[in-house]
């Protein structure tokens, strides 16, 4: 789905002037991404750190609570020299300012303690109730990528940047909108086209074509073998996984199945189940749909055509995961008002 809006740099300049003025001189800054940061989260964090360094001179640290699993993201972190540290390794008391990008307090997808104050939220997902207690909030849920917002911050403030930051901003918009194929607006296209000439094409190629272990292909095999189709909905269960990112990657991959319009995927990581939801239907809000399906079981969020969620406290037994899959599938079929008939395997035995 695309929506055309006019880029308002005056609004961006006014907001950034205010929060930078408030931030200036307050001491060390912490920038929190979500636990398993994707390119959009990483790009937004790097751009915000660069903006703060240039405009206020304050030291800024980027932190995350989980792991970087996808091959593309690991290559991106290495090649673009993205400096970030585990949240658990930090003494949070030494930070006077806390920023959160591509996430919000209490959403379940970041490990920042809910009882601690967050000063700034920058996100392109719908605003949560928890943002009411945040001093500075810039949530633009019509934008396709948080990276687009940060590109406008740099532009409005007249802050120049090098090819590495340009590359990560470009790749974030590219991956988040599937090359301007989903959930983009004019601002995303504008940023995409303006960043393109600045990109390091060699690094971009390496990011797009990473080497992956054999276990990566095993996950594809499991997803294909376990996938069930109900009307135009496909549900797959990876069971035990070594990185939560695989669920999202395979949800995107299986959305290509002929006549499938909705995909729900799940996989068990540590003591939680990671969920990914994808749709090709313009009449749905993926975030709201997944929230209704997860309901009392866990947390979820998203917008437009993509969403993700987490269900904590689930043991990794095959019986428990199969039971959870059955529950979520039943709820999803009810939400679409589909008759709860048995599914059809994607691949016949």
From TrEMBL:
Database matches in Pfam families: DHH, DHHA1
InterPro entries recorded: DDH_dom, DHH_sf, DHHA1_dom, Oligoribo/pAp-PDE_c-di-AMP_PDE
Signal peptide span: none
All copies of domain DDH, residue ranges: 29-173
Source species, domain of life: Bacteria
Residues in DHHA1 domain copies: 240-325
Gene3D superfamilies (UniProt xref): inorganic pyrophosphatase (n-terminal core) (3.90.1640.10)
Record-level Gene Ontology MF annotations: nucleic acid binding
Protein name: DHH domain phosphoesterase, putative
